[in-house]
Amino acid sequence: MSWNPTYTGSFPRRAVFALIALHQEVHDRSPEWRGAVDKWPVHTCNINGTCAVDPCGNEWDHGWEAVSCRYQQNWPADIPRVVTNIHLPKRNLIGAPPRSVVLLANLTELDMDTNQLTGPLPTDWACLRNLIEIDFSNNRLSGTIPPQWGLLDELVEMEFDGNPGVRGCLPQGVPPRERLCGGLFGSIPCPTFTTDRMIGTATTGNQLTGQFCPPYPGGDAALAATLTCPVVADFRRLIVGFFNKLAAEQAAKPTQQVLASSHVQAKVSGAAAGPGADTDAADVPAQRVAAAQGVEEPAAHGGGVSKR
């Protein structure tokens, strides 16, 4: 089976491959990460980029935990649904912020607050041009906010409070220092997407100055030229690895079923024959049982995805 990462359209294929890449990127980091994504029904997805349990279908909220496709219930059936939210707070997650979320181009909210995430903020998250809210408060992140994040024109709320290692000025274009919205004392109207009355960039519990950085030399055009947005093919190793593993597991199932059937038949035959019958037939090695049943033992990587 071959895999071709080039396609037209944005969903479901791009979103499916994005969720598979994210699953593979973090699954083996820790038991906490494994617990967070093990409930995702990625095993129902195929190489064509469709899943038996659609991430944005009517049943999405029963299978794709922490994945949301908001405000799309009344969309016409011919309009593709999109993943808008990844919500993984308070799970004791470790390691760097996962880079593969950048493939979810329609994300409006990315929330992984109150975990143990470390390292710098990914520059290429500036490719998530629909982001409205990003919340990584109360982690262990470090470094400065990439200047490319100033290209996120829709961003209204950015929370990095409780990250003592995050420091420096605010890039031109990111939300200003956190402030109150709405009500009698709010200086600006509150966005419709949130009930939180504090919006902007949180500067408490970190080393952000709250002041804007000098304009980037050459302006937004020069800044955009420094940004390379990843594509699905950049995560080929993760996606191919997933489908190879899935194919190997599926190829092994017929042999497992034959073994189980042979085990039952041997026990039943032995019991019917009475004392002295050969009841060890169920313990014959897998290769011999498969041969006796006319089933070819699958290769270790049979049915996998070609890495060519």
Task: Give a quick summary of the entry.
Keywords: Signal. By secondary structure, the chain is an alpha/beta fold. It has 5 helices and 12 strands.
Describe the structure.
This protein has 308 residues and is α/β, with parallel strands linked by helices. The protein folds into two domains: 13-230, Alpha-Beta Horseshoe (Leucine-rich repeat, LRR (right-handed beta-alpha superhelix)), CATH 3.80.10.10; 253-292, no CATH class. 23% of the residues lie in helices and 14% in strands. The protein contains five helices and twelve strands. The strands form two sheets. The chain has a seven-stranded mixed β-sheet with strand order 1-2-4-6-8-11-10, with no helix packed on it. It is globular and about 65 Å long. It is found in: Cytoplasm, Cytoskeleton, Cilium axoneme. Its main location: cytoplasm. One of its GO terms (cellular component) is axoneme. Keywords: Signal.
Briefly note the CATH topology name of the largest domain: Leucine-rich repeat, LRR (right-handed beta-alpha superhelix)
Supply the CATH class of the largest domain. Alpha Beta
Largest beta sheet: what is the strand line-up?
1-2-4-6-8-11-10
Which range does the strand content fall in? 5-15%
Rg result: 25 Å
Helices, by number, come to 5
How many β strands by DSSP?
12
* Overall 3D form: globular
- Mean pLDDT comes to 76
Going by CATH, the architecture of the largest domain would be Alpha-Beta Horseshoe
Helix/strand/pairing class, anyone?
alpha/beta
* Corresponding CATH superfamily of the largest domain: Ribonuclease Inhibitor
Helix content: 10-25%
H and E string: HHEEEEEEEEEEEEHHH
Number of domains: 2
Biggest sheet descriptor = 7 strands, mixed
Main location: cytoplasm
GO cellular component, one term: axoneme
Subcellular location: Cytoplasm, Cytoskeleton, Cilium axoneme
Biased composition (Low complexity): 270-293
